[in-house]
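Example complex used in Figure S2.
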Amino acid sequence: MRLESARGILGRLAVLIALLLVRAACADVLPDDRADLFYSKYSGGGMDITGYSALVRKKFTENFAVEGSYFIDKVSGASIDVLSQASQIKDERKQKTATVQYVHDKTTYTASYIESVERDYRSNTTSFSLKQDMFGDLTTLSLAFANTTDTVGENNGTAEVPIITWLGHAGSKSYDIDLSQILTKNFIAGVNFNVITDQGYLANPYRSVRFIDASNPNGYSLGGQVYPDTRTSTAVQIEGKYYLPYRAALTASYRWFRDTWSIVGNTYEIDYTHPISNVWILEGRFRYYKQNSANFYSDLFQYAGEYRFEGRDQDLAAQDNYTIGAKVTYAFLPDGWKMFKRATATFDVSRITFHYLDFRNIKDFGVKNGYKPGDEPLYQFNATVYQVYMSMFF
Amino acid sequence: MHRIRPALFAACVLMTAACSNIQPWVKPYERDRLADPIMAWDRDAISAAYLDHIRESREGSRGASGSAGGGCGCN
Amino acid sequence: MQSSKLLKRCALAALVMTAAAFAADAGGPAPAFTLTAVSGGQSGLSQYKGQVVMVNFWATWCGPCQQEMPLLDQMYKKYRPAGFTLIGVNVDKDAPPVKELLARKPVSFPVLLDPANQVSKSYHVDEMPSSVIIDRKGEIRYIHRGYRPGDENEYQDRIRQLIRE
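Predicted assembly (634 residues):
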């Protein structure tokens, strides 16, 4: 079972992590040394995914820092669209990341390497980024590049006794330009621009298309997906953060996405952060996302091989989802103790409601309970994500 | 060509002036609010990356979800 | 021939512009000021006439500022007998966090409060922290912007030089 159903996620993760690493820092000064322990649980759509992670960061001189992290994802359950396997899925993904950062004058250079391994999927990403402060440190410009290579396989055995067939390779290149601008004493704005090009084996081998087939008691038969072997996407986000006079922060962002598979996605997010003295920080967020379907997607094709490219992966379907999240951070060592400068514990919960507009629930509904192919109810489900983590700063 | 030279010269001076004299309109001693940890783009990088990872697995969109900059601007 | 003349004029203009940016600060008389001290009472630059003075602009929310404080304290104790004094000018908008920080990490040099940022403006503070070194005659001799570990050696060199004058 492949835990990454979208191509080259690691590439974006690498760049995101690199960019996020420099976000929290004062311009031109490396962030504090830290150690983090992280636990998360995703529950929804028949799937349970638990993740554990540890991260350590250390400065070796005032200009040079190294960071390493280890992450394990464990998945169990049966997702709606994994129809070929009747039994429960159990799989594990292990990811290692190493990052180095160097600061000189007003420039920060970051390089990282991520390696992810699952039984049926391997991926590694190399990324570089550069961050420059200018115009009295009111403006920050970041450029980043990431290169990912994946090896995709399929488990034709069971969870206990796997039989892996390696199907192919995929490659991804990601380019980012970010500009952050302080506008007033209370307001900072940012623009992010990203382009990704993928090529190779881009499909999820565990998903199938379906087509009308009168000879089948279900009224339809399953077939293999055929994806294009290239994809180029562009995303632009604008965001702003405003300081409210009684000490709170309000953040709003909008992202527009478009790719060569004709998917157009719009993301809207709003966030409110409210600290209480030096010890508690409360945060609430709301996010809304909507996309149309890819040009080779269909929930039900008319016959086998109707089109040159065919897909029925959930990611490609027309959908919208909204997230409501809340987070509480408690500083149990707000002013430090011995070698710790600060230590915090955080609990974060998100509730996501997924709603598909042209993807039907054919796992629970069909001819057996009175639904003709194409008339089954549209799929929707809720997922809850819990995160618990502890951060210690040195 | 004779008319262009003074114009070029003026442009040169203006450009140099502009580059070296963009005075920050938010002075470094006025950056206390921006330096507040609640004004950081992402207080918790791992958590943000993880939530992004979940979204990317389910949605067709990807990329462009983070910024860098702000803070106290010290040094 | 014409284009090289143009180039020379451009270069000269650039030089003048850059020089102008610095000329406004070093080499002029240090603006006088009187501020309230953290410990109470009023204090100002005029009190220290005849001594070598370093005015250090800092804030509680500035990391590098806090990094250099203990080193500034050491420097103050070392050179004070030779006619040197260090004045910390804090630019926070509110006094309580400053008092709280100094209670946890005390320094022996005087700390004055500039919440209205008038003194910071008159000294053209354009980076945090900033250290302005003033000679015995009351003239600004050096301005140090920012702080990186190792800068305290530069401070000491300048101070020793001015003490000898």
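The first helix of chain A runs from residue 9 to 23. Residues 263 and 294 of chain A are 5 Å apart (CA to CA).
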